Automatic annotation (TrEMBL):
This is Isoaspartyl peptidase. Coiled coil: none annotated. Gene3D superfamilies: (Glycosyl)asparaginase. The record marks 181-182 as: Cleavage. It comes from Filimonas lacunae. It holds the Pfam family Asparaginase_2. Keywords: Autocatalytic cleavage, Hydrolase, Protease. GO terms for molecular function: hydrolase activity, acting on carbon-nitrogen (but not peptide) bonds, in linear amides; peptidase activity. Substrate binds at residues 210-213, 233-236. The keyword Iron does not apply.
Length: 315
């Protein structure tokens, strides 16, 4: 049995201690710890990295605090459209879904796409039809309703703003908490296999069926046993344009950088130059973990067989 590690995130952005109540901070920490424990438990029992990250993400999707699954934000039309992706670093197999509705756990559907379809990426109604065929659990619209998300949407629904657009002053005033709500997990299992997954409810008030980096293999999610597993959270457009997750793997494979070094180049240099805010988590083939961010905070945690066990929120 070699070393095994799991790393998770619950989104990044302008997360400041002065904006957080003690109760809310504790609730976030508890949510992160629960997900970490669930994923780590799978690894501890000799389970696969894919199953470990799925177990962690299901709990984050079920938690109203995080913008994925149940806690997903409202689109311009006042509904939830969710995206998710998962990748197995041992085979480079991947599954992704975008603009899906009423699926309780988008990560479950992404896994079904990876394992039981001949495709990588399904979207919209087709993805929902596949969910029904595979028996993936669906929920009514009410399940996804939260007053907090609704109020957030109501504040900007009559404008062309969306809640990650930092250029609108009016939005800045309306939305003090600019959070890139995404959840993700990466893991190395005892067999030496790496996996990565990401799930999101996207942007508040998003239009035109907008899709971010989370379900895009190589942009928001990537895993390869030779190098690393990466899950990103941030301003999706920039992560897509810079192929952020795959870039980390490339810097490791072709330039010989360590996981930490490669992630710092992408997050603290390349993305910053493009105006891309956010962060990412990673694990390499030796079980080293890294969590790098260029925003004020990122909900994150790591647990490994080497004794690492921590969660953090602020920079």
């Amino acid at each position: 049995m070699s070393r095994y590690t799991i790393v998770i995130h619950g989104g990044a952005g302008t997360i400041l201690k002065e904006d957080m109540t003690k109760e809310l901070e504790e609730a976030y920490q508890e949510g992160l710890e629960e997900a970490l424990t669930a994923g780590y438990g799978v690894l501890e029992r000799g389970g696969s990295a894919v199953n470990a990250i799925k177990a962690a993400i299901v709990l984050l999707e079920d938690n109203m605090l995080f913008n994925a699954g149940r806690g997903s934000v409202f689109t311009k039309k006042g509904v939830q459209e969710m995206d998710a992706a998962i990748m197995d670093g041992s085979s480079l197999a991947a599954g992704a879904v975008a603009a899906i509705r009423n699926v309780r756990n988008p990560i479950e559907l992404a896994t079904e796409v990876m394992r039981n379809s001949n495709h990588v990426f399904l979207s919209g109604k087709g993805a929902n039809d596949f969910a029904i065929k595979q028996g993936v659990k669906l929920e009514p619209d009410e399940y996804f309703f939260s007053q907090f998300r609704y109020d957030q949407w109501k504040a900007i629904r009559d404008s062309d703003n969306y809640s990650l657009d930092h250029t609108h002053q009016r939005l800045e005033e309306l939305m003090k908490d600019k959070k890139f709500g995404t959840v993700g997990a990466v893991a190395l299992d005892a067999q030496g296999n790496i996996a990565a997954a990401t799930s999101t409810g996207g942007m508040t008030n998003k239009k035109y069926g907008r899709i971010g980096d989370s379900p895009v293999i190589g942009a928001g999610t990537y895993a390869n046993n030779k190098t690393c597993g990466i899950s990103c959270t941030g301003h999706g457009e920039m992560f897509i344009r810079s192929v952020a997750a795959y870039d980390v793997s490339c810097l490791m494979e072709y330039k010989g950088l360590s996981l930490q070094e490669a992630m710092e180049v992408v997050v603290l240099d390349k993305l910053v130059k493009m105006g891309g805010e956010g962060g990412m988590i990673g694990v390499d083939s030796q079980g080293n973990a890294a969590m790098v961010l260029n925003s004020a905070g990122m909900y994150r945690g790591v647990k490994s067989s080497a004794g690492l066990n921590e969660t953090a929120i602020y920079k």
